[in-house]
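hiii so um. not sure if this is the right channel but i have a protein structure encoded as C-alpha cells and i wanna go backwards to a sequence. like what aa goes where. can anyone help
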C-alpha cells in the first residue's frame, strides 16, 4: 500500500525534572502569542512550552509538538480479528494487538479507561521498535497488526512507522479508531492502513458534546473519506447505551445515513455496554436492544449488521445479500459454517460478499494470548 515516507526525528521532552524520549510530531504550527497549536485532531490544542494536549501523549517543547509514546506500549496480545471487530477482513485469523496510553476524546463510558485515561508511565511497560513489532507478528503467524485499546490517531507517527515495517513483512495493518482526526493527518494515517473499524459512538452532536467531549461532524467526514477516497476496508461499531443513543429514531437516522452516504455493503456492529468509568449507574445493554438495532439497520438496507458482546448466533452470522444463505457462522469468535469461496463468493449463488478474503478461513478461534515482545525477542 502506497504511503508517504518519513524519517522519524528523535527528541527529548523535559517535564518535572524528567527527560522523556520522544519524536517530533508532524502536525502543528506556531501561533503569534508563542504557543504551538497541535493540528492532529479537531481539538486543536494550543500549548505553551512544557504543556501536554488533552490526549496527554502530544506535548510542546516550545518549538514544536512531540509524541512522547513512540516505541512504548501498554501491552501486546494476540486476538481473533473478529474481536476488533472485523468480520469481513481475513476471517478466523490472529491479529497482534497493542495500544499506548491516552485519548483525544473524554468518553464517560470508556471500556478501556485504564489505558486510554492513563497518566502513568508504568502503563507503558512494553517497549518495541516498529521492526520488532513486524518481526514478532511474522514469527507468531499473525496476518495483521492492530493499533487498538486507545485511539491510534494520537500516536500517528508510531503507528505509521509500525505499519510500514509490517508491510515490508507482508503483514497487514488495522486501525481501531474513533476517527476524530483532521484532514491532513487523516490522509497520512489511513494511507498506512489496510482495514479500519471506526467507532461511531452515536448519531447526535449532543451525545458527542456531553458524553464524549467532541463533535460528530469530523467522525462522519472520516467515514466518508475512508469509504469513498481510500481502499481501506471499513467496518463500524456503535456501543449502545440504554437511554443515551439507543432510541429507534436515532438508530433509524444513523443506519439510513450509512446506507445513503457510505453504502449498504459497509458492515455495522452494535455492541453491548456494561457499566464502567463514569457511567457506573447506567444499566447494561439488554440483548434485545442489540437485536432491535440490527433489525432497524437491515430495514434501512444495511446488508451486514451484527450484534456484539452477547451470545447471538443469528446476530453474529454473515448472510448472502443475494440468496440469503448463511455464509459465515460464528459462535462468539469461533467460526462454524463457511460457505464462501477463497475469494469471497457465495458457494450457493455466486454473489460476491464485500470484504477482504484471501484463501480459506483461519482457525484461531476465541484464543487470547498475551505477548511480551522483550521476552519473545530473547
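sure thing!! here u go:
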Amino acid at each position: 500500500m502506497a504511503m508517504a515516507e518519513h524519517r522519524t526525528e528523535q527528541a527529548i521532552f523535559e517535564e518535572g525534572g524528567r527527560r522523556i524520549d520522544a519524536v517530533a510530531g508532524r502536525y502543528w504550527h506556531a501561533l503569534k502569542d508563542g504557543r504551538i497549536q497541535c493540528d492532529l485532531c479537531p481539538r486543536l490544542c494550543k500549548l505553551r512550552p512544557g504543556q501536554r494536549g488533552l490526549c496527554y501523549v502530544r506535548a510542546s517543547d516550545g518549538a514544536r509538538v512531540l509524541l512522547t509514546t513512540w516505541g512504548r506500549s501498554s501491552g501486546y496480545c494476540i486476538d481473533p480479528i473478529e474481536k476488533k471487530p472485523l468480520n469481513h477482513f481475513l476471517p478466523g485469523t490472529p491479529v497482534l494487538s497493542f495500544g499506548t496510553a491516552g485519548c483525544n476524546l473524554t468518553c464517560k463510558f470508556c471500556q478501556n479507561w485504564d489505558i486510554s485515561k492513563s497518566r502513568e508511565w508504568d502503563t507503558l511497560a512494553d517497549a518495541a521498535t516498529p521492526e520488532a513489532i513486524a518481526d514478532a507478528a511474522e514469527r507468531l503467524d499473525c496476518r495483521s497488526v492492530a493499533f487498538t485499546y486507545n485511539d491510534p490517531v494520537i500516536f500517528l507517527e508510531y503507528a505509521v512507522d509500525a505499519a510500514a515495517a509490517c508491510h515490508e513483512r507482508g503483514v497487514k495493518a488495522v486501525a481501531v479508531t474513533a476517527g476524530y482526526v483532521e484532514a491532513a493527518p487523516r490522509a497520512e494515517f489511513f494511507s498506512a492502513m489496510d482495514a479500519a473499524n471506526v467507532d461511531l459512538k452515536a448519531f447526535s452532536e449532543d451525545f458527542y458534546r456531553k458524553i464524549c467531549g467532541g463533535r460528530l461532524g469530523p467522525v462522519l467526514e472520516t467515514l466518508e473519506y475512508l469509504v469513498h477516497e481510500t481502499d481501506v476496508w471499513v467496518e463500524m461499531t456503535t456501543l449502545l447505551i440504554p437511554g443515551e443513543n439507543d432510541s429507534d429514531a436515532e438508530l433509524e437516522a444513523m443506519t439510513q445515513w450509512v446506507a445513503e452516504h457510505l453504502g449498504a455493503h459497509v458492515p455495522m456492529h452494535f455492541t453491548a455496554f456494561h457499566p464502567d468509568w463514569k457511567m457506573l449507574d447506567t444499566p447494561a445493554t439488554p440483548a434485545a436492544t442489540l437485536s432491535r438495532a440490527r433489525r432497524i439497520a437491515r430495514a434501512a438496507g444495511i446488508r451486514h449488521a451484527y450484534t456484539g458482546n452477547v451470545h447471538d448466533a443469528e446476530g453474529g452470522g454473515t448472510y448472502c445479500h443475494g440468496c440469503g444463505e448463511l455464509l459465515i457462522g460464528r459462535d462468539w469468535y469461533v467460526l462454524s459454517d463457511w460457505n464462501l469461496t477463497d475469494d469471497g463468493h457465495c458457494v450457493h449463488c455466486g454473489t460476491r460478499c464485500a470484504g477482504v478474503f484471501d484463501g480459506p478461513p483461519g482457525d484461531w478461534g476465541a484464543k487470547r494470548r498475551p505477548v511480551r515482545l522483550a521476552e519473545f525477542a530473547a
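oh and The first strand starts at residue 10 and ends at 15.
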